[in-house]
Amino acid sequence: MSNLSDLIPAGASGKTIEAVATANITSKAPVILNSAGTVSPISETAGAMGTSGDQGTGTGAGNNSGACYHITNDSTVISFPNKGNSYYATVAVCTLSGTTMTMNTPTVVNSTACYFVRCAYDPTQNCIVVYYKYNGGTNLGKVRAATVNGTSFSFGTELSAFGGNAHSNSPGDICNLNDSSVAICWGSGATSGSGVQAMTISGTTLTLGTGVSVSSNTSSPMRMDSGKKGELLCQLGYTSHIQYVACTVSGTTVTAGTVTEIGGGSSLYNDLASGFWNGYTSPESTYIAAYHTPGGAAGVTLGRLITVSGTTLTLNATTSLTADPHNNPPAMGWGSSATQAIFYYRPASDVSIGEVTELNYSGTTISEGATVTVGTGNYTHWGVATDQVAKKSIVMYQDASNSDAAEVNVYSPTSSNLTATNFVGIADAAISSSATGTVVVQGGTITGLSSLTTGSKYYVQGDGTITTVSSSVNAGLAISTTSLLLNGDS
Amino acid sequence: MSKTLTFNDTGRSPYIFDDAKNVTMGADKITVGDDADPDFYIGDMHSGNATLHTGVTAPADWQGNRYEFDGSDWTEVADWVDPKVAEIARLQAQIDALNAA
Questions:
Q1: Which of A25, A30, A157, A385 has the fewest CB atoms found within 10 Å of its own CB?
Q2: pTM of the model
Q3: Class of the A48-416 domain?
């Protein structure tokens, strides 16, 4: 005999179990094992937006906004220049019930028109830090910590960022950094190029370190995230370049690595995210980035996994995305697993709507999941946080279809009952609900499939299909075009 | 007639309300609107650093922080910049840079 499959008798070959199905299972479908010993078909729930909440048009989203998840309160704080109130820096507590968001009474942080208002939550001090920049006048950047009690804020003393240097109107960012510390960045101004500043927190008292220039070039917007305690990855887009810089921080001392410039040409609509401070501490130092191809046509965007070691970064292979942010800065938060980011943007292909796309990675490769419409006119001034209890993405935005009201909503990522450990095998024949049937398991061979590529590895997908696309669940090896040896995770 | 809130140290007027609007001066914040269902809170003004003036007539071109008010007279702030003008200037600078690239 010349083929391994010739050795296998027709039908299931040994290595089977008999189990009761909890629902109808089609022939040759992969199944999961339940704790009761029953088996179920693999099913997927599509990603979907929830029901939004707002405070009326007197609370409007204007300019760059932010959001952070407050772990202790199980709520999300949004921060934004309130277009309905002279663009004053404003925060509000938002709560999630099921898939419905509620925005509570907003609080003005600073009664000055602001260009951006971003925020971060420090779990050690159990407080938020708000970073905002005046729009005109002195152009100062300010930081202020606050505790959150229910829906109320209690503020500490406001301090000037970056030594009181004026900020130009390039959006900055804030992110977690270490226990009791956060970092801020901003892309231009009175110091040299793009800067990062770390600060420690005690109660609501901030102690700022010295701002450090991480690139001699300006950037707008400048974004960053932290994938490990004491680590930052900065993303510097601009009209002439896009750059990345990894930094380490000890106390409030920032050490910047070498600037990596991906290419010349305009690259403005970008963001990056890590799951580390969103409840996914493994793997560390791993970031998903999405950026406009430098100098490329509107909306041409690449996804890329970036890993960091110390101040050295590794740019992995790019993936061309169908997500096509344009006209307004997009925003990225984390999703419902250690390997999923959630990307919000105004698409070049339809500038009248906002979209959200799931970006997943396996190994070092980015792939796109579902894309869902956020809403007509819902496409700018994003603020994104991850609800770590519900495993959902919370997003605020300007609702242009409602007089630019600030609105908050929830995105429930695509979910499946398949996990990395519950795949048990493939049904040899159809099994009716409550009936007992045969499931081929680890070491067995399932026959009667079609169009397999002999010698290829096959994986179980969250929607119950078996394909060669890598996933966290290995099904096995095709030993013919119709037979699969289950030598994977069943 | 209107009411305005001003900072005690500068006289800067960031808020104008109708006289009928309820404004409650608290020790740590100011509540605007009905106490049971406020419109918003002001977290950087309170009874210790701000004054509520009632029965005032604001300049027709009043904008937040554009004027100072001393209880009787309004004075335009010399270095006040219209945020919209600042934003237009920023966008124009970005357009110029893109055109030059």
A1: A157
A2: 0.91
A3: mainly beta
